[in-house]
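Quick one, probably user error.
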């Protein structure tokens, strides 16, 4: 219409406000430079790429701040196009994902439900080092591929995407601001919609396109703009509104000539002051979100009711466990025997996103090697001699979309380590004798008391399996390193053990507690529980005294003993320390000789009179 008025275009491009002119059919005639800057339709950075579309095998990298918020309406079937098969993906979830387009390769994803400040995924995928970050504080999504970085700022939500050519390994597409106007949302691209070329320094051409091709057709301001262009009488002056996710100040004016209405003009202002207010508001909301997150984490830690103690060491374990419970990543729990690895695994399951699904436990060291494969993966009818007629479901099938806990993973035979690795990578498996693939949508938690790195060096554990399970490691410290938790653990155990034994024990004496604190507990919580239960069998009344507690003095710590009741520690009083050691030695001698006094004083190397004097002195 005004295409010959070159001076008009030059003048409009000099304006400090955005200026958009459409004809009475809603077709764009002018769209000045400032408007393109406001709506992200300029190509002034990046590396550029030619036009094209996704092809089979292309590597797709995603950083989505909220599913179905600004991604074109992604559903689970869309994620499956790049090998991401996860039944827990839901609307508004943040997702970091890597996969191959319409390929059999299993995709990788990290899901965050609820509020968060930062989300990050680092992964080597098909010989490429890939890093994805969402920073909700700075409002930017970063995708880094090898040495190339693709940042994309956002205000509310965004769906960032980078694609690599499978054959050349080169970047063939990357998302930039204004992708909604360009028809390049993630969902559209995954439907093989062609994308345009990006040329550094060249603007996106919009003249001749429908205004609805550039801005959402459900936006009230844009709908009113078109209505005015067609003869409508609405008038908008300096109205604050949101277009394509950008906050703007808009004014609509009709454009007439001697024949009548020929179109309309939309003036768009970059509201810097409003943006500043919004930034300050966002910072305040971010701080509030951080406080809520901290409160939620503290409440989450409180939820681990079967992990007792408040030492720094065990509090750190609880924090890690809570974070693990909110993710779908594989968890590796390490620690000495008796530290409570099984209890922690169950607590992670109960506190997390899989709580409503089954928790299935397998002790890899407690099943004969000839049976463990069928126990894990099940078998079909007639799979081998002795197989049940109806076949059998394996533990992976029983866990369904819940949690499978593989205890003592270090005991798993090498042959099965290979199969387990394949299952963890593909999230699917075949039962023995079966030809139908079974998909596993749950999460796996593994535990071991072994040093798996040492097992790798001995050739007893696969290195690639170690890296696959070591996604979220949690190490439970031994009891000797957190003795300040002993009082809380004993207080928890006593009521349960009292019911089990059938005694009246309600309290433990300070002297008995000092004795417990002086011991190193090489068997950890399990040994403590067994020792207390044994002691309750030899007591009368409601108080557990030190004389009832039997333990090897050779395993007693050389360090000074903390007294939870008395401000003086035995370890700082030589006389009391000697008396305690002497008393413990006599108790052990009586225990070993089955209370035969003569054998006991001979074992101790003292005379009869001295022996009975000490029995009287220590009330034995």
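Nope, works fine. Designed sequence:
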């Amino acid at each position: 219409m005004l295409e010959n008025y070159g001076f008009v275009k030059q003048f409009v491009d000099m304006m400090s406000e955005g200026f958009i002119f459409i004809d009475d059919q809603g077709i764009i005639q002018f769209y000045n430079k400032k408007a393109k800057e406001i709506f992200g339709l300029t190509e002034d950075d990046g590396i550029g790429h030619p036009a094209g579309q996704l092809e089979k095998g292309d590597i797709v990298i995603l950083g989505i701040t909220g599913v179905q918020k600004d991604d074109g309406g992604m559903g689970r079937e869309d994620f499956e196009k790049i090998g991401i098969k996860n039944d827990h993906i839901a609307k508004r979830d943040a997702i970091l994902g890597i996969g191959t387009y319409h390929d059999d390769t299993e995709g990788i994803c990290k899901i965050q439900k609820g509020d968060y400040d930062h989300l990050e995924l680092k992964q080597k995928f098909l010989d490429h080092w890939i890093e994805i970050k969402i920073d909700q504080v700075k409002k930017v999504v970063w995708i880094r591929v090898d040495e190339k970085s693709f940042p994309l700022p956002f205000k509310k939500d965004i769906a960032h995407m980078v694609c690599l050519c499978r054959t050349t390994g080169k970047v063939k597409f990357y998302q930039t601001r204004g992708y909604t106007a360009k028809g390049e949302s993630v969902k559209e691209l995954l439907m093989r919609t062609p994308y345009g070329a990006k040329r550094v320094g060249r603007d996106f051409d919009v003249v001749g396109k429908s205004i609805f091709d550039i801005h959402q057709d459900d936006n009230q301001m844009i709908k009113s703009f078109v209505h005015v262009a067609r003869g409508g009488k609405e008038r908008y002056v300096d109205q604050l509104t949101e277009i394509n996710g950008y906050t703007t100040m808009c004014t609509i004016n009709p454009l007439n000539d001697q024949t009548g209405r020929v179109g309309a003009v939309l003036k768009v202002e970059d509201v810097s002051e409003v943006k500043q207010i919004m930034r300050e508001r966002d910072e305040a909301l971010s701080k509030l979100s951080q406080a809520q997150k901290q409160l939620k984490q503290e409440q989450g830690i409180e939820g681990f009711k079967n992990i007792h103690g408040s030492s720094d060491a065990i509090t750190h374990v609880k924090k890690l466990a809570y974070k693990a419970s909110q993710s779908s990543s594989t968890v590796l729990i390490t620690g000495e025997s008796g530290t409570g690895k099984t209890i922690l695994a169950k607590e992670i399951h109960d506190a997390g996103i899989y709580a409503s699904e089954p928790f299935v436990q397998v002790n890899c060291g407690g099943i004969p090697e000839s049976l463990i494969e069928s126990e894990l993966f099940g078998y079909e009818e007639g799979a081998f001699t002795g197989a049940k007629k109806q076949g059998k479901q394996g533990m992976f099938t029983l866990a369904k979309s819940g949690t499978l806990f593989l205890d003592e993973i270090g005991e798993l035979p090498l042959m099965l380590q290979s199969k387990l690795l394949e299952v963890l990578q593909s999230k699917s498996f075949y039962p023995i004798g079966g030809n139908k693939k079974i998909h596993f949508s749950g999460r796996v938690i593994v535990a071991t008391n072994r040093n798996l790195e040492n097992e790798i060096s001995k050739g007893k554990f696969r290195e690639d399996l170690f890296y696959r399970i070591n996604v979220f490691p949690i190490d439970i410290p031994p009891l000797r390193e957190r003795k300040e938790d002993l009082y809380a653990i004993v207080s928890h155990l006593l009521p349960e053990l009292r019911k089990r034994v059938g005694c009246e024990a309600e309290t433990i004496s300070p002297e008995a507690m000092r004795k417990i604190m002086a011991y190193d507990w090489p068997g950890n919580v399990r040994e403590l529980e067994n020792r207390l239960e044994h002691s309750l069998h030899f007591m009368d009344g409601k108080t557990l005294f030190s004389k009832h507690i039997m333990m090897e003095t050779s395993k007693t710590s050389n360090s000074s003993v903390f007294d939870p009741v008395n401000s003086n520690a035995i370890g700082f009083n030589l006389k009391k320390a000697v008396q305690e050691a002497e008393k413990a030695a006599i108790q052990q001698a009586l225990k070993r000789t089955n209370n035969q006094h003569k054998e006991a004083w001979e074992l101790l190397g003292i005379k009869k009179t001295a022996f009975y004097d000490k029995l009287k002195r220590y009330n034995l």
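The CA atoms of residues 25 and 230 lie 7 Å apart.
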